[in-house]
Design a protein that fits this description.
With about 140 residues, the chain is mainly alpha-helical. It contains seven helices and no strands. About 65% of the residues lie in helices and about 0% in strands.
Length: about 140
């Protein structure tokens, strides 16, 4: 499974906070200069492993607190009917996070052998899903 360097992740988070519209090429070059471990990655691998993950986390955080739907419009009122309890959303979110992590690990696989390692550890993801389901 591809390893994520937390120092690089912090570097990318800071860079994207300072300039959210920074071009990938610029960010990649800066990261290569600051961290030797990035030099062996392709631009695509770097993007999948770092900037996309930062942006995904930020998007998830903004969606959870937002009252607006797509395109900045107010979200439509929920249809009347039985409402799930607050706890019902937690297992779904936990399972969703496991699937997103699985997808992240697959897209971050550098070579075929890395993809095989991710798929060989599928039981780990299944166990995490089962934990999420049991919470509900």
């Amino acid at each position: 499974m591809p390893e994520v360097d937390q120092k690089v992740m912090s570097f990318v988070e800071r860079a994207l906070t300072r300039n959210p519209k920074i071009q990938l090429e610029d960010l990649f070059e800066r990261a290569k200069k600051a961290h030797d471990s990035i030099r062996k990655l392709s631009k695509r691998q770097f993007n999948a492993r770092y900037p996309l993950q930062v942006k995904r986390r930020r998007s998830q955080a903004s969606k959870s607190g937002s009252t607006k739907g797509k395109r900045g419009r107010p979200a439509p009122a929920p249809k009347p009917g039985p409402r799930p309890s607050k706890d019902a959303a937690n297992p779904r979110d936990a399972v969703r996070q496991v699937f997103l992590q699985f997808a992240t690990d697959i897209t971050g696989a550098d070579e075929r052998k890395d993809l095989v390692k991710v798929l060989a550890n599928v039981d780990k993801y299944v166990d995490q899903v089962m934990k999420g389901v049991k919470k509900g």
